[in-house]
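haha ok so turns out i had the wrong file open the whole time. this is the CORRECT one, sorry everyone. sequence first:
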Amino acid sequence: MKRFFTGIIAGNLIGLILISGLVYYGFLDFRLIDVYAEPEPLGVSQFLMSRETADLLNSYYGSYDNEFSVCVDVKQLNTFDKEGNMLELEYLVDGFVGEPSIQGFDYSFSDMCEYGVLHSHPMGTSFFSLADINAFKNRIKEGEIVSIVMYGEDDFAYITRNYFEEQKIIIINA
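then structure:
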């Protein structure tokens, strides 16, 4: 039995050395490829929201003591230079699908969405909780690209499937 396990360990070690050699000499490209990766812009990706959508969400936020969630409608906006290089990758949150779903005091749940989900934090917490992040990680597998939290009137933060650092949504008059 000891000889069996020694053989397995030796086989794995030989395989690791072989793969390492192929990577080192350039025969194998070992960079991880993100299956969800978006085109790499030269600038920073940004989420924008139309004033009309923000005003409608503000009315929901002021009306409910509990969290609500809703699927957002997102349009991709790209800005290119003269050579065709992408300068910016922007997204416009321009409405939502269906009516908001009212949930519990400190949690919300929504069906899977095409682009992403927005949920509120009625107590004004601007950061994503661990539960929010774990739920979004599961939703990424189904194709969602963004999770948005509303933590006050005209106050929205988001994370994307490629960038988990919270950023603020810019509201525009579109």
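The chain has three helices and eight strands.
again sry for the mixup
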